[in-house]
Amino acid sequence: MSFPCTGCGACCRHVDRAKDLINANPELLFPYTWDETGRCEMLGEDNMCKVYDNRPLICNVDKLMAFYRLNEKDFYAINIKGCHKLMKEEGIYKEYRIKK
């Protein structure tokens, strides 16, 4: 199974919120910048990641989970909760809500 991302892009528009995690863990190297709103420079106008197939570890829930050898059910639940929070803040919560 893979993480049930709905492609809303909210995490990519708020990548600045992960800066403390990124800075605390060298393994989570994030080679891109973000603007004053937190939007990643690799998020295209079409809401798609320009480097999706080669995105950083922190941007790939499944690879991050495997890297840290975390429990899938628990890790997905934490990430889904975070996704829903960002969606709600952006007013896109209902249309992109992840079905568990």
Question: In words, what does this structure look like?
Answer:
The structure is a single chain. The chain has 100 residues and is an all-alpha fold. The protein has one domain. Helix content is 36%, strand content 0%. The chain is built from 4 helices and no strands. The protein has helices at residues 19-24, 61-67, 72-90, 93-96. The protein is globular, with a radius of gyration of 13 Å. 15% of the residues are buried.
Short description:
The chain is mostly helical and 100 residues long. The chain has helices at 19-24, 61-67, 72-90, 93-96.
Instruction: Tally the beta strands.
Output: 0
Sheet having the most strands = none
Total count of domains: 1
Spatial shape: globular
- Taking the alpha carbons of the first and last residues, their distance comes to 12 Å
Proportion of residues in β-strands: under 5%
- Helical proportion, percent range: 25-40%
> Nearest-angstrom radius of gyration?
13 Å
Secondary structure layout plus pairing:
Blueprint: H1 19-24, H2 61-67, H3 72-90, H4 93-96
